Structures are given as C-alpha cells and as structure tokens.
UniProtKB/TrEMBL annotation:
One GO term of the biological process aspect: proteolysis
Cited CDD domains: M28_PSMA_like, PA_GCPII_like
GO molecular function: aminopeptidase activity; carboxypeptidase activity; metal ion binding; metallopeptidase activity
Function recorded in the entry: Aminopeptidase with broad substrate specificity. Has lower activity with substrates that have Asp or Glu in the P2' position, or Pro in the P3' position. Lacks activity with substrates that have both Pro in the P3' position and Asp or Glu in the P2' position. Lacks carboxypeptidase activity. Lacks dipeptidyl-peptidase IV type activity.
Entry cofactors: Zn(2+)
Residue ranges of every copy of the PA domain listed in the record: 172-258, 744-828
Cellular compartments annotated: Apical cell membrane
Name this protein carries in UniProt: Aminopeptidase NAALADL1
UniProt record similarity statement: Belongs to the peptidase M28 family. M28B subfamily.
Domain Peptidase M28: 319-497, 886-1086
Primary subcellular site in the record, as a coarse category: membrane
Entry-linked Gene3D superfamilies: 3.50.30.30, Transferrin receptor-like, dimerisation domain (1.20.930.40), Zn peptidases (3.40.630.10)
Length: 1272
C-alpha cells in the first residue's frame, strides 16, 4: 500500500495528479497571557504567602511533583467513554474535571455553559454511499455505516456513526471525480483539463488543507457532494500492520471532523449565552459531505449515491474554568487550555492533553503558601471538534517536540525547554532533544518552531480575536522521515486508551515531560516581573516574511512598495531601541509602575497586529501578520491578506486593487506596531491668536488653511511644548464649481426629516421623483436631509436658513446684531465621517429673502403645488484629494507618559470662522502657553497632555478621524480622556456640555473652580446650575450624554472608546428657540461679529478656556482618575427604563436577560465604587493605582461593539451613538431605538430588534465583568 489508492485502482490519469506530501500539523496546548483590565484594588499578599519575584520555586515544584501515573489514570478514566460534544457523556466528563480541579484546591472552578448549534448523525438512519445498477436500481455496494470493532475498547453503544459535522442532509447521485487533496489548485488543474464538476460528486483524500476548505472548493466548482477518505499512502505508510497491532489506521478506520467554520454560526461574532439571539446560519456548507474508510474508497469507481442524514440542534456545552488568583497583578492572566470533547474516545486528541491539564491543577502553583504573581486560568474547552465552539492533543510516538508560537514567546519556550529533563536518555534536556531532532530536514542552529498557529485548535480565538500571544505544543513523530498528514488514528473510533498506552507513549514518560514543560512555561509567564517577551523576534519575522514576498510586478501595478519598506524598517528600529532600553535599564525591576508600563507595551505589541475590520472575506480573522488562509483554515499565512490576494491574481483574477489595499493595511499595521513600543507613540516617522486666526478664510485644502496650521505650530513651539508637529493626511475634499446645473420641479419639504418626506408622499401623494426639494436648515443633520431626498428619488436638494429659525421677530440683522441677514448662507458638509458619502443628489445652500420664505408653509400641511425651478442647484461640485494639516503638540508625562489626556479643536472654517472654530482655536493656543509656562517652572504633568488642532473638520471630521485611525491601537490602550471645544463661546449666558457619564463629575469639579462671568454668581458651576439650557433648574447643572458626531470627539468616542466631553458657553437656549447661533457657517462669522456681539472683552472665552484647562490639569495630574462609574449605571438604567417595551415580549424579545444585565451592572458599579472609597487613595501604591485606573479607562471601551451598529460600522458605541436618522444627535441604545423607529414606520424589523437587544444585553454584562475582581 505504498502508492496512492486511485493509482492502484487504475483510475484515469486525468483524475489523478501526483503531489508531494507535506508535514502534517497537529494542534496542541495554548499557553497564553491575556489582559482584560479586571483587577481588585487591594493586592497585598495574604498572610503566610511569599512574594513571587521569580519562578524558581514553582519550577522546582513542578519538576518534582508532576506524576506520570496520575496522568495515566486521568487519561484512562477520561477516554473510557465517547465524549462527543452535546452528549451526556461529554457533560459527565466536564463535571468530573470540575470536581477534580476543586479537590486540587484552585481558588474558583466553574462551568461556563453556552448553548450552541451542533451537528449530529442520525443513528437510526446512518449516512451511506451506494453504487446502484443503473438499469435495475439494485444496490450493488454500500459503504460501512460504522467502523468495525477491533478491540473491546471500541465496543460501546454510545459511539455514533462516522460523519462530517455541519454537512447538510441530502440525497444526491452523480458521477464520481477524484480531486486528489481537494485544494484549489487541484480543482483548477482539472478544470484546465476540461473536467466539468457541475452535478458531480467529488472524492478527495484527507490532508494538506482543512477538510471544510475542500468542501468550499467543491461548492465553488458546482459539485453536488463530497466524499472524504484517509488514503493509506498518508495513514499506513509502507503497508504496515495496522491497528490493533500498531498505531497505523486500519482499512475500516474513518476520520470524523467538522466541515463548518469556527464558532456558533447562529450567533456569529457574539457569545452563545442563554439570552443570545439566534440568527439564520449563512456560512454552513450547502452540499453534503461524508467520510469513509479506505476499505470502501477502493470500491467507488463510477456513478454513486451519497445519502447524508445529519441534523443540527442547539445543545448546551460546558467549558471548565479554574482560577488561581495572582498575588500582585490579578488582572493579568496566563491561560492554559485544552478541550475535553472528542469525536469518539479521543485518547490522543484531546484527552492526553486533558490528563496533563488536570495534573497541572494538582501541582497548583501555590503549594506551601506560594501564590503566582499573575492570575493563572486553567481552561478545558468543550465543542472544539465542531469548530472551536467552546488545547492540547499532543502526545504521539515521542520523537521530538513540535511548537507553533507567536514570535514573542519563542525565547521563553527555549528557556523552559532547557529546564525539563529529556525523556530520552540520549539527551540531557528537552531543549537538546528538540534541537537535535528537528521536524524538518533542514540544518538548524536553534530548535525548529513555526509562527503559523492556524485555527485548528482553541488558540484560534485568542490569537485572532483578542491578540493574545499564544503557543501550541505537542510531542510528535519523526515528521521528516514519516511524511503523513496526521497521526494515523486521528478522529477515528480506534483512538483509544489501549492505542495510546501501547503504541504512543508506553510508560507515559513523554506525557509527563511535556506536562512539566507546559507547567514551567506557564510559571515563567505568571511569575516573571518583566515578561519574557523578545520584541526583536517579531521584527525579524516581519522582515523575513516581507523579504520572501514576490514583489517583482507590484510597482508596475501601482502597489506602494516604498511605504511598506519604510514601515518594516521603522518597526525593526523600534524593536531594537526598545530591547536596548530594557537591557540597559538597571532600575526597572525595582519600580512596580514602570514594570507595569513596560509589560503593558510588551503585551500590546501582539494586539497592534489586529485589524478590527478583519481580513478579506474573513471578518473573524483579524491578525494582519499571521492568520489562516482563505484556502486552508488549518495553516496560517504570513501577511495573509497579501498572500491570499496574490494567489487569486496568480489564478487569473483581477485583484490588483485589493492587493493595493492589503499592502496599505499591512503598512499601516506595522507602523502602528512600531508606535506601540514608543513611550508616547504619537509621533510620525513617515513625515518628512483669535483676531489673527480669523482674518482670512480658512477653508480646508486651501493655502490659507495650511498657513494657519503652520502659524499655530510655530506659536505652540514658542510656548515650550515638548513636541509640536504637523500630522498630514491626503484626503478627499469637496469644492464648489460653477457648471452643470440640474433642472426640476421644486417641492418644499420643511426640515427634510423622514417624517416630512413620509407625510408628503404618503399623506399628500406628492411624487418627488426627479424633483428638486427645498428644506430649511435645522432639526437634523443636513447630510441626513440629503439621504432622505435620495431615498425618495429626488434629483437635487436646496438648503436654506429660514428667518423663523435664524432671525426671530425679524430683528435687525448683521452687521447691526448677530442675527442672520437675508443674504446669509450656511455652508456645511453632507457626508458622514468616513461612513457615508452622498450619491446622485446634488446639493447647494442658498439664502432666501423674507418674501421667498413666506411663499412656502412652515409645516407640510395642505396641498402643495410644485413650482418650476430652473437652473439650480449647481451641484456638480469638484472632488479632489488634497493635504490637510493637524497640529499636534505634546507635553510628556512625568510618571505615566503612556497615558494621554487629549484636548482638541479644529482650525479649518467655511469662511472666516471667528465663532466656529477659531474662538476655540484661540483658547487652545492660550492653553499651550499656560501649560508651557508651568513646564518652564518645573511642573510637568503626571500623564502626557496632547494638544490637537484638527483640520478638515467641516467636511466630515476628516483630520481627527484620520489621526485616530492611524493611532487607534495606542489610543485604545492609552487614551484617558478627550476634551473638545468646537467653539469657546457663542454668547455669555451659561455653560453647555455633552459628556460621557464617567466624566460628568470631573467636569463639575472644574467648573466649580472657575469664577463666574456674571457677578450674580460665584462660579461657572453656579451660573450653569441656575441657568440650565434645558430651562428647568435641577439639583445639578444640566448635561447631556448625547455627544453625536457633530465635532471631533466622535472618532475618539465611537472608534477608540475614549471618554469624551464637548463644552462651550452658549445663549439662553430655553428661551431663544433657534437652531444654532444665527451666523453659523456664513461669511459673516467674523472677528468683528464675535468681538462686537458675542463676547465683548472676551470674558466668556477666557472662562471657557479656564474650565478646559482646569479639567485637563485634573485629569493629567490626579493619581486616581476622577471617573464615577455609578454615573454610568444610572444612565444606562434610566435610559433603559425610558424605552417603550410594551410589545416586546409578544414578539419574542428577551427582556428578562437585559433586566438582569442592567441589575448586574448597577451592582458591579456600586461594589467597585465602594472598594475604591474604602481601599484606594492617593497614598496607595503606584501599581494599585495603575490597576484601578486601567479598569476605569477600560469601562468606556467595553461599550464598543467591534462590528459597529446596523448600517453604521464606524459607529461602535452600543450605549450612545448617532441615530441613523440624525447624525448630529446620539440615541441612547442607538441600535434599539433606530430599529424601533423603523418598526413604528411600518417596517418588519422585529428580528433586528431581537438582535440589538441581545447585543446590548451582552455588552452591558461584559461591562459589569470589567469591574469585577477577575471578571471571568
């Protein structure tokens, strides 16, 4: 049996190709370190415990206490029954392991239960493949429905028939075509030979690629079914005597396995909690697939019938989670994982690893009073086999060690291996054996490992979704000499304890050795003060894999090679500089705060390689450097987005534009990784006063705008900041043109809201198709007016400022007051910030005289007669890519330079912009002077302060959005708060503010310290309290939590989860019901108007500047961040109560789960605040303060949904985000509220509402977890 099965049967060469056999991949244990910012404020060692400053004690304890006989006994017990996920025997094993781990003394052991979609075979009607006589219909042959029992161990009634999980039930008949390993190149080659797969059943041998990808490829080529078999050339090399006399697969052996994707496909990208909303699975295979043994494969020669009777069912699965709480850093986790479910008995995969894991819980790292520095989490996953739903399966004939690893963990793996005695007496240590017995035939100078972790086991979600550095390990056979895809009995019913003990690891010496290695590696990660990560390994890997890419034709197709060269070079320099700094810093280990900061950066380096949007066609795969190929989920590519795109180009697909995008993403990601290692990480190695500011028009993209940016840069530099630079981006901008008018009937649509359009078309039967609509400014964002016009098929839009909104009582207008004159025209963008661009409806703003305005009703009532309106709007505007310039100034923090307090405003304007934005820009420059003076006097803030003057805000928040995108990775981890002042003052009546609930009290405290601008009140706080913009005096000044996306805080709040404030001094909004200040965005918004009508003497401006500066100072200098978490739970509870839920239950919306989540969040915030009040003060240790502050910062981030809101992927805040129907104003629970609006408008959106309620429930519960002691 040394040749291919189908060659031996004489199959036509057109269906047979000889291919080399690659080394098989066998996935194993995960040793992971994670950060979720869950910690307890108190970290004092318990009485009798020693401080863990290194891992020497733990290493000795593990080496002396791991017992091979215990491992043997665990394995025998675990593998005596089939452990198929979703069955009682699987649940029984989970409960057994839970009780064993509890007996071993872990701090906490619990079952984490999820209800997931699983796939099962029909035991009463097993799957079968038949050959029938084409004339009589008589069955001439059919495949085995079960494997033949060869030893008493397999004789168990709970063994299920062989099947491929998630194959659909189907009964198909077709010609049989052999497709070798079923790779894309196999199908492509046969297709080039004119083989037609349509309607055929293809037969492929296991190996080379993930079996699910074989089915995907068959679907792609229109096959009707798939048969998979284990070829003896791969699973019984040299025609050896098979099981039960050896480990080689017998002819009746059948490999089971899933052909579905990872995770529960009915809750994609969200957890399958008890309250989960289940959606229709759309990514499951559509054609049937069935595995067979090679005893049956040899008989399948012609037309066959494939009859599959699988069914899918939601059942509970049980993860076993055990914890040992860390003594110093309980909010940092080292996770050890394996799974306990098996296709049948699973003695090798996975239960050899489960036995080792339980033995490590016995050697529990805290014997005799020793507790690890960091929390250790033991994880026994369920339902891995059907797609990592819930790992080590590692010990095979014990020739050498196999490891897949993040580059960061390579050296600690080597150091751990040097401490473990070899189970082979020919070598001293595990390391020596590993070095001398490489898995490949190449010469090596250090042990062979690979960086391709794939998604073949449970490390997949940690590496790809959470960016947690991972290791996968196993003992393996001589892969260079025995070129087989997997160990032969893989996923068959012959994978028994008998096989393991007799053929794989007699004496359990290899099992004990790798258990010790696993434990020592975990101990080093849990106890080393400085994490043993080597960042230069990462840059070397990036550089090597980049050099290996074939870039020969990239430049001729416009791919930017030079930028990627630069990014790789920058990353290499950054890792070298960082490592040198660590190696030469003798005092680092003595400072707990500095250690924490350095370890954070080491941990965050892996996260920096995640792209939140995921890879092309694989949104759940997010690692830009190492991720599974689209064409083989088992094996990672380096630069997967690039490599898969290049492969598609090689296959003849025009994917050059996609390649440009993937190279750009990789370039940006590598540069972000370099930033993550820097002290501040906001510099740009790629870069080569009020009256003064507003004397010229400052339209973005013009020289006058750039001139202002350079002026501000020079002023800030003169003010003494540590660093001031221009962050330049080339963005798409819009400019007016004088050509191409549109012609159409004119229809007045009031404010252009959805309800205005609906009233006209549905109630009054006005046909808007081809019409030009005229809408007055106000009520909603102007871009949403255009969206609605497009939705109703209008040809164009005219926007105007109605005097009833901008000149109440026909007051004397500018230049005699601040009221808008008849010729005043409000400019503005109609495109959302990087989320929506207008389609075909051109838009222009106009000014109307009172006579014109009176011609139209102020509300849509009565019959409207469209007026003929020719020659307008002139909407064919120019779109052009031009540079915009952000001015960034930095004062480096003295104690925590890696924590940023950011304050920002923009400097571009539609015309002169004296109010919006340059009153705020003047304040910002004044603050750079004040903070610069403090710096010169020797007062440096505790945290880094970042001054930001944004460009191109007016055309869609472009400057701030691009900057946040570039620095997103560091902002997610380091951003403390963003304080925005779009304009300092537009009157002098009272203060107004929108804020995250977390910053509400910090804002109040700042306002209490600033003297009032009105002598009737003592402070700005008093004035604000007694002059609320809401019109009703309350116990506290009125703030709103609706930050919207009307200014530059949007990207910080919605993309980076940085708690934000937007503030200004305003007019009496309660008694002056105007849309905004009258001269808004017109050419009359001049310094003359500001100085004369808005803020004579600049008293209000100065007061707002002081509030802004005091709040910045407090956030930058206080040891404990002044965030009040109970504000958040109160806001969530209040807004939830206000939702109209009367008809939710009758439509199946899960209210009880959301009630429970909100109650849990309320309890968690109360308990956390009590902990802080009782245990934390400015006198607490720097490490304690840092841990608490991290949790306070991460609370806001926990409200982000990486997938974004429905139709608005850039809006990610589940609690507060702009409405789909008004981009200016946030909804609370935006996904829920917008869906309810659509339901009220008559749309059937109840399934969407269920999903949004589920997402909100899960998010709130996750937020509560961030405040808990450990949070798992």
């Amino acid at each position: 049996m040394g040749t291919d099965l189908f060659e031996r049967r004489g199959i036509s060469p057109r269906y047979y190709i000889i291919f080399a056999i690659v080394v098989g991949v066998f996935f194993a244990a995960g040793v992971l370190i994670g950060w979720f910012s869950h910690t307890q404020p108190t970290t004092q060692s318990t009485s009798g415990q020693t401080e863990a400053d290194d891992s020497s004690y733990f290493i000795d304890f593990i080496l002396n206490n791991v017992n091979k006989d215990n491992i043997r006994n665990y394995l025998r017990e675990y593998s005596k029954e089939p452990r198929l996920e979703g069955t009682e025997k699987d649940a029984e094993l989970a409960r057994l392991m839970q009780s064993q781990w509890q007996a071993n003394g872990l701090d906490d052991v619990h079952l984490a239960t999820y209800n997931v979609l699983l796939s099962f075979p029909n035991k009463t009607n097993p799957n079968v493949i038949q050959i029938k006589d084409t004339t009589s219909g008589k069955v001439m042959f059919e495949t085995h429905k079960y494997e033949v029992v060869l030893t008493p161990a397999e004789n168990n009634s709970d063994v299920v028939p062989p099947y491929n999980a998630y194959s659909p039930a189907a009964d198909v008949t077709g010609d049989l075509i052999y497709v070798n390993y079923g790779r894309i190149e196999d199908f492509q080659l046969l297709g080039n030979m004119s083989v037609n797969f349509t309607g055929a059943i293809v037969i492929a041998r296991y190996g080379k690629i993930f079996r699910g990808d074989k089915v995907k490829n068959a679907q792609r080529f229109n096959a009707s079914g798939v048969i998979l078999y284990s070829d003896p050339i791969d699973y019984n090399v040299g025609e050896s005597k098979p099981y039960p006399d050896s480990w080689w697969l017998p002819p009746t052996g059948i490999q089971r396995g899933t052909v579905g994707s990872d995770g529960d496909q009915e809750t994609p990208l969200y957890p399958s909690t008890y309250y989960a909303n289940r959606v229709k699975a759309t990514s499951l295979p559509t054609i049937p697939c069935q595995p067979i043994g090679y005893i049956d494969a040899i008989e399948l020669l012609s037309k066959v019938r494939l009859n599959v009777n699988n069914y899918n069912e939601v059942r509970p699965v049980y993860n076993v989670i055990g914890l040992i709480r860390g003594s110093e850093e309980p909010d940092r986790y080292v996770l050890l994982g394996n799974h306990h479910d098996a296709w049948v008995f699973g003695a090798m995969d996975p239960l050899s690893g489960s036995a080792s894991l339980t033995e490590l819980t016995r050697c529990q790292y805290r014997a005799q009073g020793h507790r690890p520095r960091r929390t250790i989490v033991f994880c026994s996953w369920d339902a891995e086999e059907q797609g990592l739903l819930g790992s080590v399966e590692w010990v095979e004939p014990n020739y050498t060690l196999g490891i897949g690893s993040s580059p960061l963990l390579q050296d600690v793996a080597y150091e751990s291996a040097k401490l473990v005695p070899s189970q082979d007496p020919a070598y001293t240590t595990f390391y020596d054996m590993w070095l001398s017995r490489p898995r490949s035939i190449k010469t090596v100078t250090e042990p062979d490992l690979y960086y391709s972790l794939g998604s073949g086991s449970d490390q997949g979600a940690f590496y790809q979704r959470a960016g947690v550095s991972c290791i996968d390990m196993w003992m393996t056979y001589d892969e260079a000499r025995i070129p087989i895809p997997y160990y032969p009995l893989y996923h068959s019913s012959y994978e028994t304890f008998y096989a393991f003990e007799n053929f794989v690891d007699p004496g359990f010496l290899a099992s004990a050795a790798i258990t010790k290695f696993w434990g020592i590696l975990a101990s080093k990660m849990a106890n080393s003060k400085l994490l043993p990560y080597k960042v230069e390994r990462y840059s070397a890997a990036v550089s090597n894999f980049y050099s290996s890419l074939d870039k020969s034709s990239w430049q001729e197709h416009g791919v930017n090679v030079a930028a990627m060269d630069s990014a790789v070079h920058n990353f290499t320099k950054a890792t070298k500089a960082f490592q040198q700094k660590l190696d030469t810093d003798a005092s680092l280990l003595s400072s707990s705060l500095r250690l924490r900061m350095v370890n954070d950066r080491l941990m965050q380096l892996e996260r920096a390689f995640l792209d939140p949007e995921g890879l092309p066609g694989q949104p759940a795969q997010k690692h830009v450097m190492f991720a599974p190929s689209q064409f083989d989920a088992y094996v990672d590519n380096s630069f997967p987005g690039i490599v898969d795109t290049v492969l598609q180009i090689q296959l003849g697909n025009d994917k050059w534009d996609q390649l440009k995008q993937q190279v750009y993403i990789a370039t940006y990601t590598i540069q972000s990784a370099a930033f993550s290692l820097e002290d501040i990480g906001l510099c740009l190695p790629f870069m080569a006063r009020g009256k003064e500011y507003s004397k010229e028009p400052r339209l973005e993209g013009t020289e006058k705008d750039a001139e202002l940016a350079r002026l501000m840069q020079s002023q800030w530099q003169a003010n003494g900041l540590d660093d001031v630079h221009l962050a330049t981006y080339n963005v798409l901008l819009s400019f007016p043109n004088k050509t191409n008018p549109n012609v159409g009937d004119l229809v007045y649509v009031n404010y252009g809201r959805e309800k205005d359009f609906s009233y006209l078309t549905k109630t009054l039967s006005v046909n808007l198709t081809g019409a030009i609509v005229i809408a007055r400014y106000g009520k909603i964002y102007r871009g949403d007016k255009v969206k609605f016009a497009e939705r109703y098929n209008a040809a164009g839009v005219i926007l105007y400022s109605d005097p009833s909104d901008f000149n109440i009582d026909l007051s004397k207008p500018y230049p005699d007051s601040w009221w808008l004159p008849p010729t005043g025209i409000q400019r503005g963008v109609i495109a959302g910030w990087c989320q929506w661009r207008p389609g075909n409806a051109p838009t222009t703003p106009i000014g109307l005289t009172l006579r014109h305005c009176q011609k139209y009703p102020v509300s849509p009532s009565g019959t409207l007669t469209p007026l003929n309106f020719l020659g307008a709007p002139k909407g064919k505007q120019l779109l052009e890519v031009k540079p915009v310039y952000n001015v960034i100034g930095i004062i480096k923090g003295s104690e925590e330079p890696d924590r940023y307090v950011l304050l920002g405003n923009h400097h571009d304007a539609w015309a002169f912009g004296a109010f919006d934005p340059l009153s705020g820009a003047a304040s910002l420059t004044e603050l750079t002077r004040v903070f610069g003076q403090l710096l010169k006097q020797g007062h440096r803030p505790r945290r880094t302060v970042v001054f930001c003057s944004w460009d191109a805000e007016e055309q869609g928040l472009l400057g701030s959005n691009e900057w946040v995108e570039e620095h997103l990775k560091v902002l997610l981890q380091r951003g403390v708060a963003y304080l925005n002042v779009d304009y300092s003052a537009v009157s002098n009546f009272t203060m107004a503010a929108g804020t995250s609930p977390l910053l509400q009290d910090a804002l109040y405290e700042a306002a209490k310290l600033v003297p009032s601008i009105d002598p009737a009140f003592t402070t700005i706080y008093d004035m604000w309290l007694h002059r609320p913009t809401s019109g009703e005096v309350d116990k506290e000044p009125y703030v709103y939590y609706s930050l919207g996306s009307s200014s530059d805080m949007a990207a910080f709040y919605q993309r980076a989860g940085v708690s934000s404030v937007d503030m200004w001094i305003t007019y009496d909004e309660a008694n002056l019901p105007i849309i905004t200040y009258p001269l808004y965005h017109s050419s009359y918004e001049t310094f003359f108007a500001y100085d004369t009508f808005i803020d004579p003497g600049f008293v209000a401006n100065a007061a707002m500047t002081k509030v802004w500066g005091v709040m910045t100072s407090n956030l930058a200098n206080c040891k404990l961040l002044p965030f009040k978490v109970e504000r958040y739970s109160t806001a969530v509870s209040t807004f939830y109560t206000s939702l109209n839920k009367t008809s939710w239950k009758e439509h199946g919306v899960n209210i009880e789960a959301m009630d429970s989540a909100i109650m849990n969040f309320t309890k968690a915030t109360k308990a956390f605040q009590e902990q802080i009040d009782q245990s934390i003060s400015a006198k607490s240790s720097p490490l304690q303060l840092r841990m608490v502050n991290d949790r306070l910062m991460q609370l806001e981030r926990a409200f982000l949904d990486p997938e974004g809101l429905p139709g608005s992927p850039d809006q990610k805040h589940v609690m507060f985000a702009p409405s789909q129907f008004d981009n200016y104003v946030d909804n609370s629970f935006p996904g829920i509220v917008d869906t309810m609006v659509q339901i009220q408008q008559g749309y059937d959106k109840w399934d969407e509402l269920k999903q949004q309620v589920y997402i909100s429930t899960y998010t709130i519960q996750s937020v509560a977890s961030t405040l808990e002691d450990i949070g798992l």
